[in-house]
Every structure is written in C-alpha cells, then in structure tokens.
Design brief:
Blueprint: H1 2-16, E1 17-24, E2 27-36, E3 43-49, E4 55-61, H2 69-77
Antiparallel strand pairs: 1-2, 2-3, 3-4
C-alpha cells in the first residue's frame, strides 16, 4: 500500500512540476514550471535557471501554461517577459 501511495505522489509531483533544458547562444538554460494547486484557483510560476542553478528570471503564468521546448525558447527570446497565455 505504501508503494502505491508513493507512486501516486510521484505522479502528482510530475504533473505539477515540469522542466525543459534549451541552449540559447551557447548557454544551457533550464526552464521550470511549478503549479501550486489550490481550492480557490491554482497558481503557477515559470523560472529560468542557468547551468549553475542561478535564477535568471521568475514570472507568474496561468496554471494552463504549456511548457515545451518551443514555449521555453519563445519566452527566453522575448526577454523573459511574462507570457500572454
């Protein structure tokens, strides 16, 4: 039973925390999306981290934001401005 609960918790964590790594101008940047569920409405944060895990940017985004390589690169190219969607 503990194993089933642990797997369920791991799956939930993976659903709420996603990240992709892209290379821009020779620099590896990890973009992470963290969703915080809440009964009154979930919130989400998009963060960019350099190869040493130093934060380059952090902005709030809708919890429906779709993080993928293309959306990460577009966000970086836009100067880390808050995405419209």
């Amino acid at each position: 039973a503990k194993e089933v609960i642990r797997r369920s918790e791991q799956q939930r964590h993976a659903e709420l925390n996603k990240n992709v790594t892209v290379t821009v101008d020779g620099q590896r940047i990890r973009v992470a999306l963290a969703i915080v569920p809440d009964e009154e409405g979930a919130t989400a944060t998009l963060r960019a981290l350099d190869e040493f895990d130093a934060e380059l940017a952090c902005v709030p985004v809708p919890p429906t934001f779709k993080l993928n390589v293309d959306s990460a690169q577009a966000w970086i190219a836009a100067g880390f401005e808050r995405p419209a969607r």
